[in-house]
Amino acid sequence: MAGPGPQRSGSRPEGYSKTARFTDSTVIITGAGSGLGQATAERLAAEGANLVLVDMNAEGLEATKKLVTTAAPEARVELITADVTRPEDVENYVQATVKTFGSIDGFFGIRINAIAPGAIMTAMVENSLKQMDPDNWEAAGEQFVSVNPMKRFGKPEEVAGLVSFLLSEDAGFINGTVVPIGGGQHAMY
């Protein structure tokens, strides 16, 4: 099991070395105020991307910006509080992105390729485990992942690495697919 929940140090993800594959690229990340969106923002900023972070939670966006600028002080980051289910909000943040950066090179949340995360230890998952068993939530988590071939939760940083790859030119010939990231559990069904 992956420790007592999401640990965010503001440094690059473990085992990560900086590349510049997103230099001068602009990426919109929806759901950027927490969890997978937050980890993806950190990763892409460290790889040189300009970021437009979108979420309904302004406080979460500020926390993400702090993590991003700690990990990548040179990062250009814009925050937009919006509801992605409202077409006028989507139109507004797309227009704001183009006005600020001149173009959009990628979306996380809107892409031809998709990811299918399995059990990833985010604050939301941790809170769910605590609701199941407030006194022994870590044991509940161990039981939950006991059927996973890797016997652990995934990390948001691992999902961010996959997103980074799928948005990069390294994945230029991958199109119209769903990529599972769940420690092999999908193959068991």
Structural notes for this entry:
This protein has 189 residues and is an alpha/beta fold. The protein is 38% helix and 14% strand. The protein has helices at residues 35-46, 58-71, 87-101, 123-132, 137-145, 156-167, and strands at 26-30, 50-55, 77-81, 106-108, 114-117, 178-181. A 4-stranded parallel sheet has the order 3-2-1-4, with helices on both faces. A two-stranded parallel sheet has the order 5-6. Strand 2 (50-55), helix 2 and strand 3 form a beta-alpha-beta unit. The protein is globular and about 50 Å long. The protein starts with 25 loop residues before the first strand and ends in an 8-residue tail after the last strand.
List the main descriptive attributes of the protein structure presented here.
disordered N terminus; 189 residues; alpha/beta; two-stranded parallel ribbon; 14% strand
Report how far the terminal alpha carbons are from each other: 22 Å
> Which structural category fits the helices and strands?
alpha/beta
Query: Are there runs of 5+ residues with pLDDT below 50, and where?
Result: 1-13
Strand content: 5-15%
Share of helix, binned: 25-40%
Mean pLDDT: 88
Shape descriptor: globular
| SSE arrangement, N to C | EHEHEHEEHHHE
Side-by-side strand order of the widest sheet = 3-2-1-4
Assembly state here?
single chain
- Number of contiguous helices: 6
- Gyration radius over CA: 17 Å
Topology at a glance:
Elements: E1 26-30, H1 35-46, E2 50-55, H2 58-71, E3 77-81, H3 87-101, E4 106-108, E5 114-117, H4 123-132, H5 137-145, H6 156-167, E6 178-181
Parallel strand pairs: 1-2, 1-4, 2-3, 5-6
Helix pairs in contact: 1-2, 1-6, 4-5
